[in-house]
Amino acid sequence: MVERIGFVGPGIMGRPMALNLLQAGYPVWVYARTPARAVSLAERGASLCPTPRDVGRAADIVITMVSDTSDVEEVLLGDDGVIAGMQEGGLVVDMSTIAPAATRRMAKRFAEQQIAMLDAPVSGGDVGARAGTLSIMVGGDADAYRRMLPLFEVMGSSIVHVGESGAGQVAKVCNQLVVAANIAASADALLFAKAAGVDPAKVREALLGGFAASKVLEVHGQRMLDRNFEPGFKLKLHQKDLRIALEAIADHGLELRCVEAVAAGIQEGVEAGWGEHDTSSVLRVLEGHNGIELA
Amino acid sequence: MVERIGFVGPGIMGRPMALNLLQAGYPVWVYARTPARAVSLAERGASLCPTPRDVGRAADIVITMVSDTSDVEEVLLGDDGVIAGMQEGGLVVDMSTIAPAATRRMAKRFAEQQIAMLDAPVSGGDVGARAGTLSIMVGGDADAYRRMLPLFEVMGSSIVHVGESGAGQVAKVCNQLVVAANIAASADALLFAKAAGVDPAKVREALLGGFAASKVLEVHGQRMLDRNFEPGFKLKLHQKDLRIALEAIADHGLELRCVEAVAAGIQEGVEAGWGEHDTSSVLRVLEGHNGIELA
Predict the structure, then answer these.
(1) Fewer CB near the terminus (10 Å): N or C of chain B?
(2) Chain pair A-B, CB pairs under 8 angstroms
(3) Is A192–B264 a contact, with Cβ atoms under 8 angstroms apart?
């Protein structure tokens, strides 16, 4: 039996993810807050629903891919939410990036109705979403994970069952803080090279061959050299993810100096008006402070 | 004609590098401040010299691999230094990590005697030195680079001619600050996962599949999980490299927040007595601040 798939939130990330599921042969029911966003999916055979509740009624598995904790709470638990339509034995998979504590609370609420919930945030950006090569970090019950795995394999190329409910979001917090630190460090390094009269492109090339190698230096380092600040991954979303990270870190009574330093740079970038630009715009904050430009 | 190679500084890094040159068929003359360190090279056919000057007299190309700027100045330009023995047309290749400004000064001094000098610091640690898979960042004249390339290819697997004299050291500054930021961010991430009740090993695995992937998370992340603080690369040497980085950054009037935050963690680790341990000991500084242990 082919599972019937619901998809709530076909945005920059969600639309190509839903499209990949359609192309893999799954029947898909979609809810979009902005219905125009779902037109291209309807043209490929998706059914459009007027509310998340209708998606829940139609589907065996509902995937959500929206912006923030409050959006997930609304589409899942609101009056017209998925929970109001879904039957026992259903599975909810939230692939948004939200607070680990909130995802655990929601999973408990669904469990009361015999509905399983996985948290499965992703890394890899819109490029990874289109190519079906996302990295997917999964928290929740092992049976639910196994049920969902064939669908994860349509959307991603690195899929790790990190642990119990919330573990996927915890891994995503870790992911976003490591990415932010790498962006800050790449900007620092390339701008220093420029100031020292050395070709930053050659420095990037040299560093990629050694212990300084990272996916961020490879991808965002090249964006910085090209001054290509088209998102990609929007700075304001990285700011949102780091707010979640800093809150979760504080919840556990931790003080992590490196995260705080890099979060400040992202905050300044948003305040400077680059929230809709790529997160590599952190470079421009640094350029402003130091009065030089990379390229 | 096979070039005669001089090697000054057969330490943890230098000895396996010199050994690889011997095994590739080059005749090698060695000077070691602590002669016992050169015994294993002599057993493989290297000639031992009593001073760097004698190495300069015997060799066409002299490689130096010592600890800090003042050591390089002494073995190259001191009374018994390489410069006192070397003939016109010789080539000096400093593979130590030292201040970019100092290497430029030394290259000018050698140029007055028609001796070329390259700066060619490396990344990859003792593992890379033994395996001949170092990343080598080269600054200096293109003809000298081409002359040295066959030897670089014996010692390394990623060799980049970054630019003119000093450019190799500038790239190494960039390398060390990116590595330090990655170590700090990896420690932050893994310790947060632990505090949040999630398996840090699973988090590392998940992150390596996405945009947070880095060589440091792979290698040093595993060291942290294993609590294996055997060097590797000593914390006190990373401290030295970041001192060079911070001085060079200040020389150019730059303020790079991320570097300063991570340098502080390394400084604290050295003060706590872990200078002889691996640079991943930065984790232990963070553990101390937060009153928890990763594993």
Answers:
(1) N
(2) 288
(3) no
Confirm if A80 and A52 have CB atoms less than 8 A apart: yes
DSSP code of B270? I
Which residues of B are known to be catalytic?
172
Cβ-based contacts of B254 with chain A (< 8 Å): 191-192, 195, 290
Same topology for domains B5-164 and B170-290, yes or no?
no
pLDDT digits (tens, 9 = 90+) for A142-178: 999 999 999 999 999 999 999 999 999 999 999 999 9
- Using an 8 Å CB-CB cutoff, list chain B residues near A289: 255
Whole-structure pTM value: 0.95
A55-103 tens-digit pLDDT: 999 999 999 999 899 999 999 999 999 999 999 999 999 999 999 999 9
- Selecting from A184, A245, A265 the residue whose C-beta is nearest the C-beta of B181 gives A184
Q: Torsions phi, psi of A282, nearest 5?
A: -50, -35
Mean pLDDT of chain B: 96
DSSP secondary structure letters along B78-146? STTSGGGTPPTT-EEEE-S---HHHHHHHHHHHHTTT-EEEE--EESHHHHHHHT-EEEEEES-HHHHH
**Given A108, A172, A202, A240, which residue is catalytic?**
A172
> In this complex, which of A206, A252, A264 lies closest to B137 when CB atoms are compared?
A206
Q: How far is B84 from chain A (nearest CA, A)?
A: 31
User: Of 3.40.50.1370, 3.40.50.720, 3.40.47.10, 3.30.160.60, which CATH number belongs to A5-164?
Assistant: 3.40.50.720
In Å, how far is A53's CA from the nearest CA of chain B?
32
CB contact under 8 A, A160 and B185: no
pLDDT tens digits for range B99-124: 999 999 999 999 999 999 999 999 99
Distance from CA of A56 to the nearest CA of B (A): 29
Going by pLDDT thresholds of 50, 70 and 90, the confidence category of residue A126 is confident
Rounded to the nearest angstrom, the minimum Cα separation between B49 and chain A is 33
Kindly list the residues from chain A whose CB atom is less than 8 angstroms away from the CB atom of residue B159.
209
Residue B261 has pLDDT above 90, yes or no: no
**Do residue A206 and residue B255 have CB atoms under 8 angstroms apart?**
no
Helices (H) and strands (E) in chain B, counts: 13, 9
Q: Do B174 and A207 touch (CB under 8 A)?
A: yes
Q: Are A249 and B192 within 8 A, CB to CB?
A: yes
**Fold observed for domain A170-290:** N-(1-d-carboxylethyl)-l-norvaline Dehydrogenase; domain 2 (1.10.1040)
Domain residue spans in chain A? 5-164, 170-290
